Amino acid sequence: MQLFSDAEAILPFIFKIQNLFCPVLCFYLLRKLRWPDGIQCVKCKSKCIAKDGHHGTDNNRQRYKCECGCRFDDFTGTLFEGSHHGITVWFAVLYLMGLNRSNLEISIELDLHKDVVYDMVTAVRGKVCENKPAPILKGIVEADEVYIVAGHKGNPEEVAKQGREGRRNRLKGARGRGTLEKEKPPVLGIIERGGEVAICMLPNVQIKTIEPIIRSRVEPGSIFNTDEYCIYDRLTEWGYDHKTVCHAKGEYARDDDGDGFHEVHVNTMEGFWCLLRSWLRPHHGISQEKLPLYLGFFEFVHNVRRRGKRLLPALLGLLLGA
């Protein structure tokens, strides 16, 4: 997943922590990532533009005027447009999100109200899910499902529909395989060995539910490794080579070709679930409504293979449409 531009050359200098609080450098980086080939009109894409002063509340936020009559500035058409917070606050939020800090931790670190932080991080996760490329997997892929306890935190109407009072302690998921109605939604994961991953929250685990996801995310002819769960029984009919391991019999890896290498397994996918659980752990009580945003954000983070300040260029590039 390539989400970088010529601005990569300046990143070692720009992304020193102390420089993230300099609005001049932050705006310089934003322009480099948003317009790597030079500033262009947000309406007609023309490069025949002139500077037109600065924003009334921020002297570092440049305004422009195009020959078509369009006026815009550095934030126009971006996630940051209309925000009351400056670019350094946004960069700090993005940096802390890359470190997987919870909303409460971010609000404490930046001295912001928790509701303000909630709106900011939700907007970022939503934009990431909207703009991130959909990975197309091929070769040897593994598929597995996991169940995450997620109710309707902050949504009293949905809680009432479940016939229970609002909880004070941790929500206890129902035993066995879960569904959205049981407040234990399943998450389907497909990972290419040595490549990217695709994860998606499902209403239930049925063949008709997973079929469109698998067909759209995995190239025909790929080799699927799964466990013995029956929802994967039609993979061969859908045009894939299908191999299974039987966990019920204590089989977790198998050597089919006799070369001494146990190539049939779903251990890569199960290892990914450990990473996902660790990523979700600081965010206590994620609701069903927001869980897809957390999953989409982590899919993006995992696929670009970056964390913390090293995630910032890829994250900004995605948010700015670079």
- Summed up, the helix count is 10
Question: How much of the residues is beta strand, in percent?
Answer: 5-15%
Number of strands: 8
Broad shape: elongated
Q: Which residues sit in consecutive blocks of at least 5 with pLDDT less than 50?
A: 1-8
- The side-by-side strand order for the widest beta sheet comes to 6-5-4-7-8
Termini distance? 13 Å
Q: The biggest beta sheet, please? A: 5 strands, mixed
Indicate the percent of residues in helices. 25-40%
- Could you tell me the CATH topology label of the largest domain: Nucleotidyltransferase, domain 5
What features would you highlight for this structure?
alpha/beta; Nucleotidyltransferase, domain 5; 2 domains; 10 helices; 8 strands; elongated; disordered N terminus
Would you give an account of this structure?
- With 322 residues, this protein is of the alpha/beta class.
- It folds into two domains: 6-131 and 307-319, no CATH class; 140-304, Nucleotidyltransferase, domain 5 (2-Layer Sandwich), CATH 3.30.420.10.
- The protein is 33% helix and 15% strand.
- The protein is built from ten helices and eight strands.
- The chain has helices at residues 11-14, 23-34, 87-98, 103-110, 114-131, 156-161, 207-217, 267-280, 291-304, 312-319; strands at residues 49-55, 58-66, 71-73, 140-147, 186-192, 197-201, 223-226, 241-244.
- It has a five-stranded mixed β-sheet with strand order 6-5-4-7-8, sandwiched between helices.
- Strand 1 and strand 2 form a beta hairpin.
- Helix 3 (87-98) crosses helix 5 (114-131), helix 4 crosses helix 5 and helix 5 crosses helix 9.
- Mean pLDDT is 86; it is low at 1-8.
